[in-house]
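Forum > Structural Biology > Help requests

Title: Can anyone predict the 3D structure of Secondary thiamine-phosphate synthase enzyme?

Hi all, first post here. I have the sequence for Secondary thiamine-phosphate synthase enzyme but no way to get a structure on my laptop. I'd be grateful if someone could post the structure tokens.
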Amino acid sequence: MVAQLVGLVIEIASLELSTPLDAVLTIPIVAALGHVACAVTHQGTNVRTMFSTEIEVRTGAEPVVHDLTREIEKFLASAGAGDGLLHVWVPHATAGLVVIETGAGSDDDLLRAIDEVLPRDDRWIHRHGSHGHGRDHVLPAFLPPYASVPVVDGALATGTWQSVCLVDTNVDNPVRHVRFSFLAG
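Reply #1:
Sure, ran it for you. Structure tokens for Secondary thiamine-phosphate synthase enzyme below:
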């Protein structure tokens, strides 16, 4: 089955476009790598290529700042990334993404600040789940479920101490999915 999917190309020719371009949409499905690549070509020239994959992160039973940087670097390498844009997306109503320093206490400071700004108490109207769970549903308004980072020569264009991190304070759901998408420049 995997061998049948690798290299499978679906072409949709002569798309009806609002511009006078005759385009071909090419979607190779790369099952062995676990991600999908999509390219739009015009007159034989690759206009854009996007690679995407989803990973599973086990966050456990405590609020956590999980550094995604190594997983992102592996994804960029497997996608053969050059210059472009990385987009990270968390399809959950109670988790967010940040670019922050980790390992020197900033991650713990962030969790402490979240507890101060969004206390886990009974003030929340949204009350299902564990005590104070309503605050978990407010978290993405402060820490969005997305982040975009430039990629230069296949590497994240982050500063020396910056890491891309998943923030999960929802102790009721210890498994998260995170989607990485790379759009080539």
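The chain has one domain: 51-184. The CA atoms of residues 82 and 154 lie 4 Å apart.
Shout if anything looks off.
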